Amino acid sequence: MLAPVVAACSHLTPPPPILSLASGGVISGIGKGIISSSLGTMLTNYGLNVTSIKIDPYLNIDAGTFSPYEHGEVFVLDDGGEVDLDLGNYERFLDTDLTRDNNLTTGKIYQKVIEKERRGDYLGKTVQVVPHVTNVIQEWVEQVSRRPLSNGRLADVCIIELGGTIGDIESMPFVEAFRQFQFKVGRENFLLFHVSLVPQPSTTGEQKSKPTQHSVRELRGLGLSPDFIVCRSKTPLQEGLGEKIAMFCHVPSSHVLAVHDLSSIYRVPLLLEQQDLVPMVWKHFELDEALWEPLPPKPLQRWQDLADRYEQLRKTVNIVLVGKYTGLNDAYLSVIKSLQHSCLVAGHKLNLEFVEASQLEDEARDNDPAKFHDAWKTLTQADGILVPGGFGSRGIEGKIAAIKWARTKKVPFFGICLGLQLAVIEFCRNVVGWKGCNSTEVDPECETKVVIDMPELSQTHMGGTMRLGKRRTVFVKRDSVACKLYGEPDFVEERHRHRYEVNPDLVDEIEKHGLRFVGHDIEGKRMEIMELSEKDHPFFLAVQYHPEFLSRPLRPSPPFLGMSLWPLATPCAEWFASACVLPSTRGFT
Ligand SMILES: *[C@@H]1O[C@H](CO)[C@@H](O)[C@H](O)[C@H]1NC(C)=O
Ligand SMILES: *[C@@H]1O[C@H](CO)[C@@H](O)[C@H](O)[C@H]1NC(C)=O
After folding, report:
1. Does the annotation count 170 as an active-site position?
2. Atom of ligand 1 nearest to the CA of 71
3. Name one GO molecular function term (predicted).
4. Catalytic residue chosen out of the listed positions 417, 428, 437, 483
């Protein structure tokens, strides 16, 4: 492998990591993230160490306070950083763990500049966008890209994705910073990908190159010339269009890459591979040709297998996700991805249906009987029911009703975060007999407080805060489904994001009635995993943490794997056997 050669010299004196920058053209949201992370995964498979930075030219400093309905889900990193979906994509494709500093915003940069100004670092001089803000951007990028990766190596390549569209006022300081940066590190250490949409108005069916030409002209006007142009289109690029774009945009025609809509995102790296992307990148960076020698014959074989597997799935598993919707499914993106990963490994085709929790409530029967009926019809046809995390009180009783259905009808159930809390409440109301019990989050004055506020004491902030980031869960009962799914380790480490928890004072009483808390935090106070025993229910499992943040295409999250296998598998032994088809699915560490 060539990694050691490059990384070995990196350890002596860190060379500037190679930067490749993806900037969007025309409109945002055309899959820049997927293209950048595909490039990353390709370079990783060729043995390079890759890190990545996502730049969002907003003034916000932290994504934690965002409404998930406006911006999609909040993704949580090991260090508790709350970021948006794109960093999740990078983690999944690069199979590495990133930190909160891998997400850069205008707000974070300005905060730094203002701190410096207050400290007197600028010696009372006028502080300006150029050079002060642009310098801080460059320093940040250099620092973050020189930090060791989660495998302990230094990065050879840093992929930077600049959010938004070229020409936005917000992204100007970043564009200027990178214009300077290319001279600082040298053109051979800097690579610019420009991702652009090639529209195809249906009237003529002819693909249009003009928008791409315009956006490249704009980019050049700002002092950046793309090395590669990635054309995103619905169908493969039409004859001659690539050459035309190459000619008008001053790049060799081999540097115009075409990425049309594909059957799965696993095909994107393969499509780029067919267009010889990595050798061209290698050449641009003037990496040693000799490094090619020991390459595996097919570096992207694992992706090829995944993509093929995806197209050969036969048995369908119907999973119903009971949540809160506003028409934006991005709010549950990581949960959906995790189900896709685990179904792929399980060999099942995922049919995911959504049910709006509030439509399962008695109130809905009176207000909107048709929707109430449909929601219950979907729910009752599920092979498996999933209740993911969430906040707020709307739909709580509907989710509890869905959990009751799953428990009493022995439908496989998986709950995450709020899903665990509600499963415990449902059990307490209907099995233990505490009719008026509730969570103090939605009903502070309730009769029996089964779920209570248990903030974590923070060293850095006054008082208690949300429990965020990677924490350890210890298996206290080894004869459990969860422990088996994880491959029987002593403990697991997963990411958290919550304030409320099962009231520890009531745990003994609840367990007497048959609910098992099989995983605790290291102090034994916080309930992390609960399940019903296999003799009471085929699969009834819930976790307080968010396993969806650590699921990777080739290494699905174990509880999700259980959820994907169980609904269709008859005897346990059989599904454990099939869970082992890919060695990477066991052994979570
Ligand atoms: C980074 O943080 C900003 C500010 O909170 C947020 O808007 C953005 O979505 C985050 N981006 C990523 C990739 O996490
Ligand atoms: C629990 O709290 C919710 C929200 O306040 C309320 O709608 C519900 O009726 C409560 N349930 C019980 C059993 O008290």
Report:
1. no
2. 9
3. CTP synthase activity
4. 417
Which ligand does the CA of 397 lie closest to?
Answer: 2
Return the amino acid letter for 126. Answer: T
Q: What is the pTM of this model?
A: 0.81
CB 405 within 8 A of CB 413: no
Q: SS3 for 26-73, per residue? A: CCCCCCHHHHHHHHHHHHHHCCCCEEEEEEECCCCCCHHHCCHHHHCC
- Provide the pairing of β-strand 18-24 with 157-162: parallel
Q: Is the CB of 480 under 6 A from ligand 1?
A: no
Catalytic status, residue 417: yes
First-to-last alpha carbon distance for the chain, in angstroms, is 23
Residue nearest to atom 14 of ligand 2 (CA): 436
Which residues sit opposite 472 in a β-bridge? Answer: 493
pLDDT in tens, 524-575: 999 999 999 989 999 999 999 999 999 988 788 999 999 988 776 644 444 4
Q: 430 CA to middle of ligand 2, Å?
A: 14
Task: Convert the pLDDT of each residue in 449-502 to its tens digit.
Answer: 999 998 777 555 555 578 889 999 999 999 999 998 998 899 999 999 998 999
Using CA atoms, how far apart are residues 237 and 246, in angstroms rounded to an integer?
13
Ligand 2 probe mutation, 400, 435, 443, most atoms within 8 A of CB = 443
Evaluate: CB of 362 within 6 angstroms of ligand 2: no
580: phi > 0 → left, psi -120 to 50 → alpha, else beta; which?
alpha
Helices vs. strands in the chain: H and E counts, helices first: 21, 23
The answer to whether 566 and 384 have CB atoms below 8 angstroms apart is yes
How far apart are the CA of 447 and the centre of ligand 2, in A? 10
Q: For residue 464, give the H/E element and its range.
A: strand 464-465
Name the residue at shortest CA distance from atom 6 of ligand 1.
63
DSSP state letter for 555: B
CA nearest to 346, candidates 567, 507, 145, 495 = 567
Please say whether the beta carbons of 490 and 461 come within 8 A: no
> What's the fold here for domain 3-51+130-306?
Rossmann fold (3.40.50)
Specify whether domain 314-579 bears CATH 3.40.50.880.
Answer: yes
The secondary structure element, H or E, covering residue 172 is helix 172-185
**77 pocket-lining for ligand 1 (C-beta < 6 Å):** no
In the chain, domain spans: 3-51+130-306, 314-579
**If DSSP codes are grouped into helix, strand and coil, which group holds residue 524?**
coil
Residue with tokens 């179904």: 343
Residue 167, SS3? coil
